[in-house]
Amino acid sequence: MMPSAFVFLDSLPMTPNKKVDRKALPVPDRFIQRPGNAYTAPKSELEVQLAGIWESILRVRPVGTTDNFFELGGHSLLAVRLVSEIRKITGKDFPVMALFHNPTIEKLCVIITEKKWAVRWSSVVKVRESGSHIPLFCVHSANLARFMEPTQPLYILTRPSKDDNLAPYSTIAKIAKKNILEMRTVRPKGPYVITGNCLWAVVALEMAHQLIMQGEEVPFLFLVEPPDICLGNQTDQESAVRSRLISHGRNLGLFRNSEKIEYIARKFLGLIKRKTSRGYINYMVKIIVCKTYLFFGQLPPHDLRRFYLYAYHANKIIKSYIPWVYPGKAVVFYADKMSADVQQWSKFVSGGVEVHEVPGAGHIDILGEPYVNILAGIIGKCLNTLPGNDVKKQL
What we know:
This protein is α/β, with parallel strands linked by helices. The protein is about 40% helix and about 10% strand. Strands 3-5-4-6-7-8-9 form a 7-stranded mixed β-sheet, with helices on both faces. Helix 1 links the parallel strand 1 and strand 2. Helix 1 (about 45-60) packs antiparallel against helix 2 (about 75-90) and helix 5 crosses helix 6 (about 200-215). The protein is globular, with a radius of gyration of 22 Å. Residues about 230-240 and about 390-395 have low confidence and may be disordered.
């Protein structure tokens, strides 16, 4: 719980309700503390330029040539910005995945200066290989890297890059099967610890189930803001609406009268705002364009293909997913318990469910600071209960 940075302000920004406006707080510059002489200073002109870009985007300093981008707080959105800045100074066009597989300035300089090079593709990104703990596999998210114990090995299972074949995305089960094959390339045998966010939480759940069916051990499964999968095997719109009403009725039975009113108002107002918002209209236009391309047997343009796979198509495969009863244990994180079906996990997870609420977080920013600190702390405590993972015993 020791703060990593201190920022002095003349006054705290406040909301109209006289509460601290966390979103208006300035992002602190962080100084990296390293044990011993772990800092490797940039030497060449290119290394100095890259170090400056990293310090500007990550807001940390000083950045050494062997520092890992993701351990310093980098994630996929910052990776896009970083690669864009590198393109400006080098004039080379290379994919964001090059950073995922070469996450240090030292490694990046090698591929940038090569005349002919190709990204050696793998869905597994090795963020931290060393450490005495059982590795943590994060499905499609790197945000936890900087906040985990240094003894915690961590890998990211990413999506395929420039993959024009939609077959691997056709079902949750196929995505999970593919991820397991990739995961076994770095860890052939269990036990396995997996975490996933939103759609990828459902993929993580399916992965854990498949692993147990293969005779492997999954001591912990962490699900962050998982979507509602109670509607998995609905066949028509009428039954889907009926199932939603049953779900809402079940939730209302758990709340006090004041909470019931707030819950109904939130759902009703949210529905009106969602259907009339500019974002929803833009969403529908994109879907129509994508479907038009697919109708004529063509793939959508690259800038729309990601939207199709991770918005429309993702929502579609979640609704068609029929979950098995998972015999293991799950730790579930919600930004707001009132926004979720708080009973569904007892039906799908028979080994026990531990639910945590992250106050103040939203669905999108729950993996951003300061909320990711809470998640990492709880996950770390859970992992320390595993045999051989007790930090105090090691010390």
